[in-house]
Amino acid sequence: MHYSLLPWGKAIKYWLLETNPFLYNLVLRGWINIFGQGEMTVRIPSLIFGLITIAFVYYLGQKWISRRAAIVSSLIVSLSGIHLFVSTETRTYALFVFLTALSFYWFINIFVEQKISRWTWPMFFLTQVLLLYSHLTALTVIVIQVLALVYFKADNAARKKLLLTQFFSLLIWSLWFIPSLLPKLNSRSLYGWFFTYNSESSNILTILNTLFVNTGVPEFILTLFAVILLGIIFYAIRVFSQQEQKNKNRLFVLMLWSFIPALLGSFFGQYVTKYFVFSLPGFALLIAWTFDQIADKTARLAVTALFLVIFIPSTLAIATGPIFSWYSITKYIEKNETPNSAILVIPFNEELVIKKYYQGSIPVEGVYPMPDNLSLEERIVRYNWQSLFPSDEEYEVWMAEHTKNRDKIFFLQYDGYESNSVIWFINHNWKFKKRIRAVGHIGITMFEFNAPDYYQATSSTGARAN
Question: Which residues span the membrane (predicted)?
Answer without folding.
Answer: 44-61, 67-86, 93-112, 132-152, 164-182, 220-239, 251-269, 303-327
